[in-house]
Amino acid sequence: MAGLAPDASSLAAARRLARPGPWSDTGSTDTLLWGKCQGSGKTPYQVSIDLVGPAFRCSCPSRKFPCKHGLALLLLWVDGSGSVADADEAAGFAQEWAAERSARAEARAAGDAARPTQTPDPAAAAKRLEDRLALMDGGMDDFARWLTDLARGGTAAARHQSYSWWDGTAARLVDAQLPGLADDVRSVGGAVSGRPDWPERLLVALGRWWTATRAWAARESLDDAQMGDLRAYLGWSTSADSVRRADAVTDRWLVLGAHRSDDGRLQQQRTWLLGDATGETVQVLDFAAGGQVLPVARAVGSTLVATVARYPGAAVRRALFADEPAPADDEVRMPSGSTLEHAQLAAARAWGQNPWARRVPVVLADVRVGVDRVVDPQGASLSLTGDAPVWSLLALTGGRPSRVFGELEDSRLRPLTVVVDGEVVGL
Amino acid sequence: MSDQEAGDVDTWWREVGNVALVGTSRRPVPPLPDLGPAGVRARADGARREETLLDSVAIGAAALRAGRRLDHADPPAAAPDDHRPVAPRRAVQLLELVITQPPAGAQQRAGLLVHWLRAADDAGCRVPHGLLPGLLDLATGGRELRRPVTAVLDERGRWLAGLREEWSWVADAVAGAGAGAASRSEGTAPAAGDWARLPSSDRIAVLATLRTHEPAAARALVASTWATDSARDRHAHLGTLRIGLGPDDEPLLEAALDDRAATVRGAAAELLDAFPGSARAARMAERLRPLVRRTGLLGRGVEVTLPGEPDPAGTRDGLGKPPPRRSARGWWLEQICAGAPLEVWSELTGADPSLTVKRLTDAQATDALTGIRRAVRARRDPEWATALLDRGWDPTLVAALPRERRERVVLTRVDATTDRVHELGAVVGSVDPPWSPDFSVALVSRLRASKVGSAMVLATMPHLLSGLHPAALDPLERWIEQAGGDQTLTTNLRNLLQFHSVKRSITEAFR
Asked: Are A136 and A178 in contact (CB under 8 A)?
């Protein structure tokens, strides 16, 4: 039964997953093996293996077959350390396969040891930076002119422009290496024609864009944090290596919640972490396009020990894992949460520091969930975002006061996590 | 900020919006109001009108976002407490698996789900809250799941379903099952007044449930409104008597032979065929006796004569207008044979059922045998069923045999049917599930021995899924190991094995 794994990288990935950490609800019968693996989705992947076939099933989007989750579950079971319930003896094919694979993997690891490292050329880097700034300056000037033209002609006139007018502006911003701003323009341009609340939406967007052009013009006076937030908004990426070198902090991190989106072109994963010692909530962003697969997501409600490096920024900071997180021995508890009014105040404070922050993380105490809103004990209420998993939330809470973690975005709440009977459940 | 100041800001922001709408070329930009402790001031240098507007928009948008006042609303109503405990953890894992990744293939999902839901209901458990939306969605698409799903929703599930238009079928199912469920759990029939007011379709459901537990109470309900019910309802109500039919039902059926409607009379006559001890059966026996005669020197032949024109009593007993393309007298003979006690035949021929069947060979025998078959089916007479099956295969008679003999007869038939695979499904299907271990093992070994085993498995798949005993799973597994390159066969066998294995695990998970 050789060759169950489609390729070496799947197998390597499977070996990394073949430990109890990411697995839950594992079990088996004489003919079936199952378990749930915390993958890159917000809900764990359901994995099952028909041991008779063998045939693999997994709810992950990977096109590889069998995927790493299936292989990992098999490895975990063959390992027989009791992590998969009822595993008395692994099926013959599985054992043979595992033994053969472990030999091959060791041979490969030895070959991986030496990889050439690049030495950067400082002069060339400085030249590149100068060219980029010149390009961005030009793009921002051009954009400011476009904004003043729009202000002179009025938004009612702009509304009658075709989408290509917005798209053209966005394309020029992309050419000027301002892709984040370009995305914002495209998305507002798309919304203006179809939404009844377009005047206010466009007005607020104009304010945001104008603030960006003014901030860019005054960028000499911005500190590193403010500049970091502006860069993130404009889409001027900061290299992960430089982030890793700059501002790393080792802490125990509670995985508050995660959100995943897929617009067909790009998959995005946002994981919110709360530091125990720092008390700061940061977001880890992962992206994957084309055939790429998002990195492993963290189980919501779990606590990780990790060194996390933060991107420059003032509030609602982005971060990345500087090393491989390990499960923590003792857990960080989910904060007890606040009223909606306090959450709104905290968000206002965050926006005061970082006007570009699209969403602010909040933990709400004792809110009751309805079909389109949450209501706190004071009677204050907040609408839910259109993509909120409202039926799961209603099923889990039954309309009873519950602690909810979510993102405040455009004065709506996107719930990501709920605490039910003391159990933290990712939605 | 005071309300006065807030009002000023609102007026200002509205005006900023108006200017933005028509453009600064048409309307002047209003001056910034006092924005309180934030201390925001207009630019000192002479900015152009557009820039002043954009400054105002930027400030206003930031203020709007940070200073938005929350709406107030009444809290949504909460779900009542559940009554049942949640299903055991292992059972929940299996349910999740069946929902998200049906182990025996998507086609078998509904079968496993129904098994899970029934097992949960029997164990008095409910579905875990997190799985409610997925299950409700599945049952919205698959109607056969609705009843079993409704049984294990408990308060939370019913509350949840009430919040969403797509799930409104739950309320109907709960209301429909309500009367039946009440009679099942409390052992009481609905009060006469309630019964009279129930719509026709609900009455059938109530009767069907009640008949399985309290046939007399159900019969009393039927009788209570008999005089005022429409012919259509009377006919439908008689139909439910088929469930738990017993000699106590005879008086009602006998009275129904005088009904105004022919359909009701016909249904009553057919139901009475099941009672060899009834008054009608005795009357039919009297009609049969003069028609059967022993022939030959040793009296080993049997001759049947067609009956003559029936008297009014005969017509009342069912000797009426024949079905299309049937001779009237042949039909009457069939009706008489179907209604008379089978013992009359032994009395008249002096032979046991087997010999009697063999001796029924003359021109009238076909009509007589059709009638006898009906009597055997209605009375589940094993001896006569065996005698008839020896003469020719008839799957509808198999049910009259005791299980052991039934399975033996079917296995013999399977051996004889191997070249007609398309008939095999009906043959195997005549043994109602669940099958005995011996039959299951023997059937699998015959399928495996056949040269067309793959086609046979396909033809009998639905019955193998519902009937196979776990004892056959080992042989099945050995077969898979040696099935070789036949992909369709391997897949079918694997699904079959997995289906039963998971089904057994589900049953065990609720113990």
From this structure: yes
Q: Are residues A166 and A85 in the same domain?
A: no
Which phi and psi (to 5°) does residue B353 adopt?
-55, -40
pLDDT at B484: 75
Name the residue with tokens 């798209």: A167
Distance CA(B444)–CA(B450), nearest Å, equals 10
Domain final residue, candidates A168, A187, A221: A221
Query: Where do the structural domains in chain B lie, given as residue ranges?
Result: 3-67, 89-167, 176-272, 279-396, 402-509
Please answer yes or no on whether B65 and A204 come within 8 Å at the CB atom: yes
pLDDT band for B197, please (50, 70, 90 cuts): confident
Q: Nearest CB to B62: which of A200, A206, A351?
A: A351
Q: Residues near A312 by Cβ (< 8 Å), separated by ≥ 6?
A: A224, A225, A227, A228, A229, A231, A238, A246, A247
Q: What is the pLDDT of residues B458-484, one digit of tens each?
A: 888 889 998 999 889 889 888 888 877
| Measured distance CA(B210)–CA(B181) in Å, rounded | 9
Tokens of A209: 């864009």
Say what percent of chain A tops pLDDT 70.
87
Of A59, A155, A411, which has the smallest distance from its Cβ to B20's Cβ? Answer: A155
Contact yes or no for B58 and A207 at CB 8 A = yes
- Chain A environment of B480 (Cβ under 8 Å): 52
Q: Which residues of A touch B93 (CB under 8 A)?
A: 25, 27, 34
- Domain encompassing residue A399: 340-426
Q: For residue A50, what are the contacts with CB-CB under 8 A and spacing of at least 6?
A: A31, A32, A56, A57, B103, B494, B498
Q: Cβ of B57 and A203 within 8 Å?
A: yes
pLDDT tens, position by position, A165-214 = 999 999 999 999 999 999 999 989 988 877 888 888 899 999 999 999 99
Does residue A230 form part of some domain? no
Name the residue of chain A whose CA is nearest to B49's CA: A152
CA distance A355 to chain B (A): 7
Residues of A in Cβ contact (< 8 Å) with B59? 207
